[in-house]
């Protein structure tokens, strides 16, 4: 977790060094959170999910309009994997449906290039 000097948690850092900021920082000393680890940890969990959901929505919207290598560097690794799988599945389904027009072979060639 990323703390500031007032013990506010404003993000998380992965073991690989990726940083994700929370939409709303969690002040562990505010109100009923002070001294109540169970309370502020639930709030941290909610902010983790909210930030990753937001990133996923943004990455999903950006994918079709951004060069793939540049796109993959814009988002946390797990978001890149999840959104890539969404588009890969859609593209494979389209290629299978276009089987008569050599869809799978064309898609294979696209993936190789």
Overview of this protein structure:
- This protein is of the alpha+beta class.
- It has a single domain, classed as Alpha-Beta Barrel (Split barrel-like), CATH 3.20.180.
- Helix content is about 55%, strand content about 15%.
- The protein has 4 helices and 3 strands; from the N terminus they run βββαααα.
- It has helices spanning about 35-60, 70, 75-95, 105-110; strands at about 1-5, 10-15, 20-25.
- It has a 3-stranded antiparallel β-sheet with strand order 1-2-3, with helices on one face.
- Strand 2 (about 10-15) and strand 3 form a beta hairpin.
- Helix 3 runs antiparallel to helix 4.
- The longest helix is centred in the middle third of the chain and has 26 residues, at about 35-60.
- It starts with a strand and ends with a helix.
Keywords:
113 residues; alpha+beta; three-stranded antiparallel sheet; 3 strands
**Could you tell me the number of beta strands?**
3
CATH topology: Split barrel-like
Given the C-alpha coordinates, what overall shape results?
Answer: elongated
**Overall pLDDT level:** 92
Chain oligomer state: single chain
Helical segment count: 4
Radius of gyration: 20 Å
Question: What does the largest sheet look like?
Answer: 3 strands, antiparallel
Give the uncertain stretches in residue-range form.
none
Please identify, by name, the CATH architecture: Alpha-Beta Barrel
Structural class: alpha+beta
Percent of sequence in beta strands:
15-25%
Please sum up the structure shown.
By secondary structure, the chain is an alpha+beta fold. It has 4 helices and 3 strands, in the order βββαααα. It has a 3-stranded antiparallel beta sheet, covered by helices on one side.
